[in-house]
Design a protein that fits this description.
2 domains; binds NADP nicotinamide-adenine-dinucleotide phosphate; 25% strand; 10 helices
């Protein structure tokens, strides 16, 4: 498709955002953009008239569309933030890049490796930025774990456990999250964040190479919707990660343990729900001699990281700063999830395809 003009390359004034998707998470994106210094929420695309009217009522000064192609034709945006059901990520991202705008794309980057590879190709060809919404990387808590690893507090990292117990997933608009053809698989929903974290923490162990996974469901008619999921990921230099999740529990509780040749880190986050503004969280660090409680000054949780993600993007556009999670990172996370699903299906270890 063709558009009238490309997005601006030099952004001295506020970064102009368009948002595609005004659902449960998209509305939080809108609020985060609206409150971020240096960002302007200029347009929202919603699918139904009801959502469009809600967006217009909440943000009277913006343009609202029901077709994202109409928004792109205006040609006055710097960044398009894409927060729609996962089966739509590929086509909308491709069209936005071709229209000359930078993209902030919610996870998962795509629902196939072919989609991710093609988006990386387009991102490189268009020289636009493509960030993927793995916001855990912006957390004061999960980021502190990374900082300690990078500083050598635990020696060489060898093992990472990322575990979540929570209540069931939301249905999503029209129930898309419970339709396997639209969601891809449930590993791409939440465990994908934990694969991303594990790979981030075990960076010194090289690329992830293989995965063995098990899963089951408590829904007899829908065995493909897995309530319990666990995987072991092997990395090329010998480290490994365990990613485990249950949706059959209560509230929202995440635990991370990373051990190395010289020490260990133990972090946890708990809330009545994932989007709470009142979580409890802690980090304990062991340097091989002493265990200490590490104070985390800045509150953490996905609502807070979402705001930091928007601020990160504004900084990246204005000051050519690096993205917290690149298209290549997003592709690795999808690759780990799809290989994990292959392992669940076959009962065998599955290879994780390398970046081409
Ligand atoms: N990073 C994270 O922590 C995180 C958290 C939650 C979700 N997500 C991701 O964010 C995405 C959206 O999730 P959600 O929970 O917000 O889903 P949701 O509540 O179902 O919202 C999806 C929205 O997309 C809209 N939509 C559907 N097709 C569209 C189209 N062609 N053009 C414009 N809008 C369209 C729907 O419109 P209507 O309202 O008009 O039906 C709905 O508002 C998913 O990819 C999900 O994986 C990420």
């Amino acid at each position: 498709m063709k558009f009238q003009r490309t997005g601006r390359d030099n952004v001295a004034e506020n970064v102009r955002f368009g948002l595609v998707g005004f659902g449960a998470w998209g509305q939080h994106h809108a609020a985060a953009i609206a409150k971020t210094e240096g960002a302007d929420l200029c347009a929202v695309v919603a699918r139904t008239e009801a959502s469009a009217q809600k967006a217009q009522a909440e943000y009277p000064g913006i343009r609202v569309y029901t077709d994202y192609r109409e928004m792109l034709k205006e040609g006055d945006l710097d960044v398009v933030d894409i927060v729609v059901p996962s089966d739509l990520h590929f086509q909308i991202t491709s069209d936005v890049l071709q229209a000359g705008c930078h993209v902030l794309l919610e996870k998962p980057m795509g629902i196939s490796i072919a989609q991710c590879d093609e988006l990386i190709r387009q991102q490189r060809a268009t020289q636009k930025m493509l960030a993927v919404g793995h916001e855990f990387r912006l957390s004061s808590l999960w980021g502190k774990v990374k900082q300690f690893i990078d500083e050598g507090l635990i020696g060489s990292p060898q093992y990472a456990l990322v575990e979540l117990s929570r209540n069931p997933y939301r249905l999503g608009a029209d129930g898309w999250r419970y339709d396997i053809n639209r969601v891809g698989n449930w590993i791409l929903e939440e465990p994908i964040h934990f694969f991303d974290l594990a790979r981030w923490y075990l960076e010194p162990c090289g690329d992830p190479v293989s995965v063995y996974a098990s899963a089951n469901s408590r829904q007899p008619d829908h065995p493909e919707l897995q309530d319990n999921f666990s995987a072991i990921v092997n990395f090329e230099k010998g480290g490994y990660a365990v990613v485990s999740q249950t949706l059959s529990a209560f509230e929202h509780h995440v635990t991370v343990k990373v051990t190395g040749t010289d020490g260990a880190l133990w972090a946890s986050w708990s809330g009545a729900m994932d989007r709470t503004r009142h979580p409890t969280f802690s980090l304990r660090a062991f340097d091989g001699e002493t265990v200490r409680d590490v104070p985390i000054e800045k509150i953490t949780g996905e609502l807070f990281e979402l705001e930091d993600q928007i601020a990160m993007y504004v900084d990246a556009v204005r000051n050519q700063k690096p993205l917290a999670c690149t298209a290549e990172d997003g592709r690795w996370s999808v690759a780990m999830c799809l290989s994990a699903q292959e392992s669940v299906d076959t009962g065998k270890v599955a290879a994780i395809p390398k970046l081409s």
